[in-house]
Amino acid sequence: MNLFGQFKKGSVAVFVALALNSVALESYAEAIDTENVYATVNVSSDQKLVRYFFSYTCPYCRKYDSSMSRWGKTLPKPMRFIRTPVITDNENSVTGAYGYYTVLQAMPTKLDAYQDTVYTNIQDRGLSADDLNTYLISAIQIGIPRDLFIRTWKLDSTRNLVNNASILGSKYNVRRTPTIGVGGKYSFDPEILNSGSLDLYTFSNVMVSKYIQERGSF
Fold it and tell me: For the whole prediction, is pTM greater than 0.85?
């Protein structure tokens, strides 16, 4: 079931308009009844971040990964978009998180290509999400040297990032993927949006604008 709207070229303009016009923002927020579709959290370390919680086995995460990354580049400074893998009791989530943070550290400019390749290998080609080799193969396919990938995988910093991702998922009370976290204050997921009138990008714009207006300054 398609729970999301399509990525709109005009979403940047919508963000700017809402960010600059508090009256328009309040009217829009009232029209879509935002309080019924977001949760309030308290993650003080994330005041300048928008997080995209994802899983490599989630088809919705795959469908919107690259477009949400592009949307993230439109955020006003000092806000910054960052992906965060969801850690669950399933071993594949831990292995996938290790792969993600390995590439993030080893060759961050390859991250978008890596995401697309991993999703394809797991969801289309049937490679195991539990297997380190799935992530190694994906990295090699986009030009990351095998030795660099393995060496970075074993770093203490990689383990620390995976552990932190697990903590963040708990703090944001992630129950479905994808989940969006805004400024360490709000979280929401597209499943609870009304697919007939809302889309993920417009609602993300609304929530970021709401957060910035409430905060005032950084």
Answer: no
